[in-house]
Structures are given as structure tokens and as C-alpha cells.
Design brief:
Blueprint (H helix, E strand, L loop, with lengths): L2 H4 E3 L6 H6 L1 H8 L18 E4 L2 E4 H15 L4 H13 L1
Parallel strand pairs: 1-2
Antiparallel strand pairs: 2-3
Length: 91
């Protein structure tokens, strides 16, 4: 998996024209490490990284957050538990 596949950006999804103009800028940024705003790990040490406007979250922190929200409700569905189990078995 190359670096571009590991980083998912949500910042340019709203404005396609702006995304086209910033494509070269984003490509040059992808050469630099992207750090998770929650745990501080770079994209080179995590499975995936999601970029938002001014914030990044790695797949591990996202799954911890999802697991927390499910456990907080104390009713994890079978499907949700299967997703969590498959993720944690891969890590």
C-alpha cells in the first residue's frame, strides 16, 4: 500500500473545483508525514489516516472512538462487534 492510499482527505470533497486547483499542492504535501491529532503517530506507522479540516485521525484512534461509543450505549450490535473484532484481529 503506497502513501497516497493510506491517507484519506475529507477537506476537498465539498468543492470539486477547489480540489482540482489544490491537487498539486496536496500531492506535494503527501510526501511529508501526516500526524494523527489524537495519538501523534505519523501515517507511516498506522494502517490509514483520515484528514479533515485542520484535524487528522488514524484508523486505530477512529476504531477506539467507535468502540467507546458502542460500549457507552451498552448495546453493540452483532454487525458492529464483528467489524471491531475483525479490525483488532488484523492489528
Amino acid at each position: 500500500m503506497n502513501k497516497e492510499e493510506k491517507i484519506v482527505s475529507l477537506t476537498g470533497k465539498r468543492e470539486k473545483s477547489k480540489n482540482q486547483q489544490n491537487k498539486n499542492t496536496q500531492e506535494s504535501k503527501s510526501a511529508q508525514p501526516v500526524f494523527c491529532s489524537f495519538c501523534g503517530r505519523p501515517n507511516t506507522r498506522v494502517l490509514k489516516m483520515v484528514q479533515g479540516p485542520g484535524v487528522n485521525i488514524c484508523s486505530e484512534c477512529a476504531m477506539i472512538a467507535v468502540q467507546y461509543l458502542i460500549m457507552e450505549d451498552k448495546m453493540p450490535s452483532g454487525e458492529a462487534q464483528a467489524i471491531l473484532d475483525s479490525f483488532w484481529n488484523k492489528v
